[in-house]
Amino acid sequence: MLQQVLRRPLLAIADSERMEGLVRRNAKGLVNRFVAGEDLETAVAAVRGIVEQRMTTTLDQLGENVSTEAEARAAVATYITILRRLAAEGLEPNISIKLTMLGLDLGEEIATANASEVLATVQELGGFVRIDMEGSAYTAGTVSITESLHARFPGTVGTVIQSYLRRSEADVERLIAAKIRVRLVKGAYAEPGEIAFRDRKEVDQSYVRLMRRLLDAGVFPAIATHDPALIQEARDYVRRQGVRSDQFEFQMLYGVRRDAQKELSGAGFGMRIYVPYGTEWYPYFTRRIAERPANAVFVLRQFVGR
Ligand code: FDA
Question: Using CA atoms, how far apart are residues 209 and 169, in angstroms rounded to an integer?
Fold first, then answer.
């Protein structure tokens, strides 16, 4: 309840330069818990540590909307560097990308052409790209671009569906029909009630419906949540339906519920950790803080203490 009430104001407060400066100067310890480092070197070391614990990873170079073609081209080059580096280290070339970093604000053609270049490298290396889902202005574009990329580079690309969006049931059916891999999440952005469920119970009920549908008919769905009740629901459902543990995986964020990550992996389930890194960590970090009032209180205490 508290989480629901606080999430919007926290996201609004976070969206100020003054707040960003304060957090950058004072909350480094907490940032390090959620962000694997600022450079690729540190991120690769984090990936290796997770793989040694018999879990898998998807690496995310943090960053969001770009407004010029040059910046979008730079993001293509960065993604390709990351993929080649992972492969050279003998690690799985699996990354999560954002289409706004590849120029989605400049037009769908530009973002598609840029993503195609990344996917050509992924295909060559035998890796996988997950296209993260951003705010609702980008949902339709992200789904249709994923479809067109999947048609050209089958099996190398998937996307994300947010259970808080009312449109998600239709999108899930569309992605199932196209045999595209889906990561199911609750959704991390502040969306209006006309298009999104605002009540936590409704978001969870939607999650369960979509999860069951994906486990029944989807291609290797990813159940991405830290919610103990939803994880138990998934475990009960796969047991009842006879879904094998090599037919889906769980996913969690770096630094969140580390014990649960180990427990699920120890119980024989696929557990993929989303590993974010880079200097542009502020928006990602504030979304994680807004999800958990205890984290926000921790940050505020540090400021008050000074
Ligand atoms: P919920 O927020 O209800 O949390 C359940 C419990 O988990 C909490 O009670 C707490 O114990 C623990 N927990 C959750 N967040 C925590 C935190 N920050 N710190 C400490 N404990 C925490 N969203 C999106 O819109 N687009 C995307 O592409 C993605 N991608 C993505 C990938 C992966 C692998 C994951 C796990 C999540 C995403 N998300 C996302 C984020 C997602 O939409 C959602 O905001 C978070 O996962 C939090 O929701 P939960 O399902 O974990 O439940």
Answer: 9
